[in-house]
Amino acid sequence: MNNQKKLTAAIVLLSVLLVLVLLVTVWALFFRKQTVLPPDYPPRDTDSHMKPIPDDGGGTIETPEGGGAVNITYAAEVTISLSDKTAHLYYANPSRSNQNVAIAVTVGETVILRSGLITPGNMVTELPLLEGVEQKLVPGGYEAELIIYCYHPESGEKAMIDTRGALTLTVVDSIS
Fold first, then answer.
1. Which of the 8 DSSP states describes residue 46?
2. Which of 9, 11, 146, 159 is buried most deeply by CB count within 10 Å?
């Protein structure tokens, strides 16, 4: 009888361990937070929402050979329409910059939107949310972060340093 109890206890213990392994596997596959990393060499496509900056002053920032410079111009407020799945913002890469940029907006560790390349002399005022993000947001205010990734215009190589700025994000059901 004692051997029977040991066998039963071993089976129960192995069953519990099997259930734990399955739960960890399900969590790892479906619920673990996925961080999106920017590529070192982005696609060469420019953002389809990019448009020229009106009354852009022109000229470029002086930089040493091999260096780069970006003139950062953005509004610290972003409004998201859940019905349109669109962010309304202002980011400009003035012609004074000598780097292409791509931007991302994050809330905590979650990337909610990302642009394509924005070339000097151009801006974006609307960007689509990443797929499924509208289900994670509810109407209200959020503290968010703008991340600016700079890329060499000829080689496409990513700069070593990203620039970050604070944003106030307002989520609404729809924009009238």
1. B
2. 146
Interior angle at CA 148, CA 57 and CA 58, nearest 5: 10
- Encode pLDDT of 38-87 as tens digits: 555 555 677 778 888 887 666 565 655 655 667 788 999 999 999 999 99
Task: Give the start-to-end residue ranges of the domains of the chain.
Answer: 1-36, 51-172
Count CB neighbours of 26 within 10 A: 10
- How far from chain centre, in Å, is Cα 3? 58
CA 156 to chain centre: 19
What kind and span of H or E run contains 112? strand 110-114
Smallest Cα–Cα separation from 147: which of 132, 133, 135, 159? 159
Class of domain 51-172: mainly beta
Q: Which residues contact 53 (CB under 8 A, 6 or more apart)?
A: 92, 94, 95, 121, 122, 123
The model's pTM is: 0.71
